[in-house]
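Readers of this paper often ask what the protein records in our data store actually look like. Such a record has a labelled line for the sequence and another for the backbone structure tokens. Nothing more is needed to write down the fold, since each code stands for a local backbone conformation. The record that follows is passed on verbatim for readers who wish to inspect the format.
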Amino acid sequence: QVQLVESGGGLVQAGGSLRLSCAASGRTFSSCAMAWFRQAPGKEREFVAAIFRSGGSTYYADSVKGRFTISRDNAKNTVYLQMNSLKPEDTAVYYCAASVESVCSGSYYYKFSNKYNYWGQGTQVTVSS
């Protein structure tokens, strides 16, 4: 069984920064891509950022482009999300996700939550105005 454990969430003022971490543990697996999604109260879960194991390509939602940076440490099976210039509208529960191969089998699949095999429990990010 693979487990994804997020950390680093919290309360921050608008304009501040947070760094989220997601560590994978359990049986050895190799994910072709890992990603962050978020879900605000009363809204659907939405894609935030993704990173591919091969080549390290990254993709971002338009709403976070230029402010958030996703990175990964393959040796540690850990993915990070550096969030700068945070806005109140970034308030949400942030989820880490990993895809064994589905995301890599088609263009733009990284945007779709149903292409990911494993999910973390989520970490709350609250940005005050």
Notes: The radius of gyration is 14 Å. The chain is about 0% helix and 50% strand.
